Amino acid sequence: MRNIFFIPAFLLSLLSVTYSHADLLKDKDIVHESQEDVLARHLKNSDTVLLVCVYESRYVPLPEGKGHLWDKASQTRIVQTLRGTAPVGGILILHRKDESLPPSGLIREEEGHRFISTQEQGELWYVFLNSKELKQDKQGTLTGSLSTMFMNPLKIDDEDGMDSFRKLLHIEPAKIAEESEAARFQPESGE
Length: 191
What we know:
Layout: H1 2-20, H2 35-44, E1 48-64, E2 67-83, E3 91-98, E4 106-110, E5 113-129, E6 135-136, E7 142-145, E8 154-155, H3 159-168, E9 169-172, E10 175-179
Parallel strand pairs: 3-7
Antiparallel strand pairs: 1-2, 1-5, 2-3, 4-5, 5-8, 6-7, 9-10
């Protein structure tokens, strides 16, 4: 009877010793994604690619967790539609969660909602969106969400990101003239 308990205890101790001495991954063993890989993934999964100009950001508190997260709603104008049917000149509001507030802003109220407003300096972004997730109101304003993924949005002043973007797409005014196989939109099967 005593040996029956000894065997499982011995096996358990043997396994824990083996596990504690397992090798951890080294930095050289981790494969890092290139910017081209990240952008190609965004492009493959996005049926709407837009160049937008940001003119205002509005921050509304979202009480979550141990502090506040902010819904940062970037008010933009569509400058160029590279893929999709969003109208050039239309308004697109892009929501994303943010953990911090801007260094300055005005507290405003519109339609009974209070928010912190900051004027942007006309920053240009490429955004990668799924048209199924875009909503349009009665005035024609489009609303969508940006993931917190790296490089969405791709800011025009990000030189490294733009170099990667140009490796994947050849853009002529108002359209994509050519795209690499790695960046080509691939709809889900069955659509």
